[in-house]
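Dear colleague,

As promised, here are the two records you asked about, laid out in our usual form so they can be pasted straight into your sheet.

NAME FIELD: protein one
SEQUENCE, THEN STRUCTURE:
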Amino acid sequence: MGEKTVAITTLGCKVNQYESAALAQSFKEKGYRIVDFKDPADIYIVNTCTVTHLGDRKSRQLIRRAARANSAALIVVTGCYAQIAPDEVGRIPGVDLVVGTRGRSRLVELVEAAAKEREPLCLVSGFQAGEQFEEIAALPLEGRTRAFLKIQEGCTNFCTYCIVPHTRGPLRSRRPENVLKAAREIVAAGYREIVLTGIRTGAYGQDLDRDLSLAALLRDLSEIPGLLRIRLSSIEPNDITPELVEVLAGLKNFCRHLHVPLQSGDDEILQRMGRRYTTWEYARLAEVLRDNLPGLGLTTDVIAGFPGESERNFENTVRFIERISFSGLHVFKFSPRRGTPAAGFADQIKPGIKEQRSRRLIESGKKLAARFAGSLVGQELDVLVEQRAGERGSLYEGLTGNYVRVLFPGREELLGEVVRVKMVETEGTALKGFLCE
């Protein structure tokens, strides 16, 4: 019998992407070969998302696709949709093993047990008080230039629209010594940039010790030799402390980009969302960040069509987004999640109106991103070279520290390196430039 093959597909956030990479490594270490999800495989793993109903639907589609691809394969479903709706997932024809967002450090063992039994298994359970961060060590997948490093799990904010606290449980932080060890391994593997990620990254350390914080962790990470760039994934406004701002301003290898979710630019809607800040407080935070971090790229999330969002509320959001002048927007249409308060709110917005508002916000985001890119023309900026730019001859592409994509003539040996590029013009929301040599 030849080596067993495993195909993994991932829906949703950067945390899911990290966890899928960790699962792939776990199987490789046990002698399995990782193949593309489109290829025939002995084991298919679907790492699901349930943030929106679209995530649920795509998860189901991928599960069914795997079952059709090889009727003899073992179908494993994990992730947030599996955690919140295990019975629903288990009823999908072909599913052999359902594992939620816990116990995945043992997934290889669980898969091998399920393969012997050939009886459907559901191993999803609720969260317990005092749970610890589950270690699933992961070096990045081959061919990447940036490495995600998960440092935190869980959320206790319970925004009225969000299912994540129910799928990810309470706050659990990775021990700092384990974070540093993983970071050193990533740098030793040749990666120049690490992206710190978590469900609520800014709450790092709150469950461990009063002296532990994201700011303290960043100080230690910044001293690792060879780590040229540190980037943060999404961070909640209320988790950005004066200490964190001071530390970020002092780090030479911190990428000057922050993704700080807004969700609405109207105080009435923010209150209904349970967001715990006002537009004045958010605007003040943006001002403080830009004063301390010159050149900062500031991106955000916005929800279109939250229940009760009137035209006035929506126009307030449009004006506020323009006032803050973000460098990019992630726009989501409100999706009622079973078990959240907002799913039962009166005045649900009609799909057509949500679609119209979403499109308008997306267009606004494109204009803001193009404006921010234009503000960088004429500057010389560091770019992490990621890949050849499609079929465009000798052009290569990468990201600036403030998260703008750059196209420039380059060479194969520059892949994975940080180079200096002179920005000469915009191309939509991206920049074009040439190497400073």
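NAME FIELD: protein two
SEQUENCE, THEN STRUCTURE:
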Amino acid sequence: MSAARARTAGEWAGQELGVRTVSWDERDAILYALAVGAGADELDLVFEERLRVLPTFALTLAQWAPDALGSQGAFDVRTAVHGSQRLQVLAPLPRAGTLELRARVGDVWDKGSAAVFDVVVESEAFVATWALFAPGCGGFGGERGPASTVRPDGAPDMVTEMATAANQAALYRLLGDRHHMHVDPDAARAAGQPRPFLHGLCTLAASTLALARSLGAHPAALVELDGRFSAPVFPGDRLDVVAWSDGRAAAFEVSDGERPVVSGGRVRFH
């Protein structure tokens, strides 16, 4: 009997990834805020009596979904990378609670030598979409997908510096993304990096704190976020956040002084 035909990347589109009920408490939300750069004096982010939960905390609750697709064999988990992230906030997260999350594969784009899998997680509080870039999975005859967002013309309206901490990756991984490349030098080198690097979602979330401060908004008032991961960030790096604002919304980019590390960014606050 012949072996079963392997599924092409395009045939994963629409695949259900399951339903999971997640729970959290004030300690989890505070740990998250500290891990993405909240200061000890920002009491409404780090003190349970005044706590407002950062909306990007939702991404740690849903991290199981992209991991589930990889474990089902859609792509090689050793070479696939997190290409971009979108978040739409529908309702504030309470200080502690439970939430039912439903995950599925959305579009699968054919980039020729690679495929991009959109993993969509939906709930009453948010919709989050991971775009996973998988080398070697393209060439299945699908559409290439939308073009990357172009950097706005003209000088930015805002430029601010964002410092990362030397222990930030080690701290952030306690929230659920425990891939070894973020803490183990050998695993980082196997992934093509000289040393452990920061989670893209940590960099992206940290940038929303800097953007909120500069736009006169509260970081917990985030309602939309989008960004593409362009280059690695290493714990201890000092980054520049530049933005082209439109009231409480902005296009933005994060760079390490030499190259963008988050590009095509878009953020909106209440």
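A couple of things worth noting about protein two: The helical segments are 26-35, 43-46, 58-61, 64-71, 168-172, 185-190, 200-215. Residues 66 and 119 are 6 Å apart (CA to CA).

Best,
R.
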